[in-house]
Every structure is written in C-alpha cells, then in structure tokens.
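Our consortium's second objective concerns turning raw sequence data into structural hypotheses that experimental partners can test. To show how far this objective has progressed, the report includes one record in full. It was chosen at random from the queue rather than selected for favorable results. The single chain below, 295 residues long, was entered without modification.
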Amino acid sequence: MNKSPPLKAIQYFSTTARHLSFSKAAQELCVTQSAVSHQVKLLEEFFNKKLLIRQGKRISLTQEGDDLNSVVRDSLQRIETVSNHILKEPETHLKIIAQTSIATEWLAPRIASFKQSFPDISCYLTMESMAASFDAQEFDIVIGTWPTPDNFVSTKLRDEYWFPVCAPSLSAKINANQSASLLTLPLYSSENGEDWQLWMQRQQLRRPAITKVEHFGLALLATKAALSGQGVALSNRFLAEDLIKQGKLVSFPQWRYQLPWGQYHVHYRQGSHYSNAVQCFVEWLQLKISSDSAT
C-alpha cells in the first residue's frame, strides 16, 4: 500500500534544503531551529534514509535528499502557479456595439485609452448601421441614434448638432455669410434628401428649382465623399471632428441644426452581471466626450 510522507515534514525539509541552514529555515517558517530539525528527522525516519549531511553548522544534501528536493521544488512551483491562477480575478469582458459612424470615426481610435485606465476590463467592439440588424440583448452596451432597447437604460451623450462640411478646395466657393451659397453646389445626403430639406427650413431657404443631390446610405459615407472636393455633406462632430482638426474638411458651424433622429445615446443593460464595469465605461465615455468638446 502506497504511503505518502508527512507534508509538514516535506515543507520543513524543502525550506532547509533551499537555505542549507536550519537556522535560516527556522526564521522563514517562524519556528525554532529544533522544530525544523525534528521534522527533517521524521522525514528521514519515514524514508529510512539520510537526506541531509550535518557537518557542524554546515549542511549538504545526500543523493537521496537531492533527488527528493528536486521533485518537491518542482511540485511546489506548480502548486504556486495553479494557486495564482485560481486566485486571480477573472478579466471582465464588455460586449459593445456602436453605430458605424461613431464606431469607426470616434470610438475605435479612443478605445485604447479606456483600456489604459481600466486594464482589468476588456472590450469587444463591433458595429452596425441599423438597429434591426442585431439583437441588443447580446450586448452589454449599445451606442447610437437608435431607440432604447428593451431592459436597457439610456443616457444622451451630448446635444448633437449637424452642420455642412466640405473640402478646403470647395470652401472658397461658399460665402460664409450667405447659407444660400451652398445650394449652388452638389449636396450629399444620407437621408434621401430629408436632412437637407430640414436644413433649408431652419435657414429659411427655398430649394432652388435645380439642385443637385447625391445620395448615400450612411452619414459617414457622405462625410467621406466630401473629402473629394466635389460636394457638401451634413455631418456632426463624431463623424467629422478629427478630419476638421486635421484640416481635411472645413465646417460651417454657424449653419448648424439638430436632426430629430440625430442624437446619440449610450444604452446599457439593467442588472448587468458586469454592472460595475459598465458604469466605468459609461463614465469614461461621458468624460472623454466632454474633454473632446472642450478642445
């Protein structure tokens, strides 16, 4: 019948073998030197073999002691590794889906700063252009101009304004004091012309008989098309802010207006298993938007 050695004696022996000193082993184990010596002796009696050679205050390992120590040392290291893995707090994974416009142009370039602030929270970010294209219940956080999903709480990110943007080369053809000057240029629309129709109403302008309107499926695409220098798009800060700062687009904020469907919200699940992490992300998002707006 197999019989295992006493674990306490194994611990005392391993510590002694590492220091090759009864006194140093006793200090580490917070016991007396005689207690260490007693446990090592018990282990030698168990094996009926000498494990240590005592030469005054000097200690060395016998061949049997060296063999045992190598196995014990390896086993303790493996136990420590497994213990650290078990004790380690699991990393939190937030699943986030954002509208294509804000995901590609604003959130994705900034998500690394969230990871720097919260290294224990990882984010899986994906995007969609329409709310009907995904199941919100599969995500912890939803960001966009979409309605609030069931069982989610919503917070508006900021008051979002839409304004004309175009390439610097085209801006020379626009009279900054006359909004009607835009109507002589091709207009890029992402809402079947309704966005520009509302803009003209806010500006108290009548649509000319001949107005060239080109249509795009997304506001992001219309904004990107404006980089060509061939037309004017209606955009917002989430889509165009970085391009404006880089000098690739010129904006006309004096002619801004609010689209009824153009307000961005962050929607987050009620009672989420990761509620603390969700709160950290929402607060980070609001702070990041606020700091960007201040610059």
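The partners drew two points from this record. The two ends are 77 Å apart (CA to CA). The chain is about 45% helix and 20% strand. Both points have been shared with the crystallography group to help prioritize constructs.
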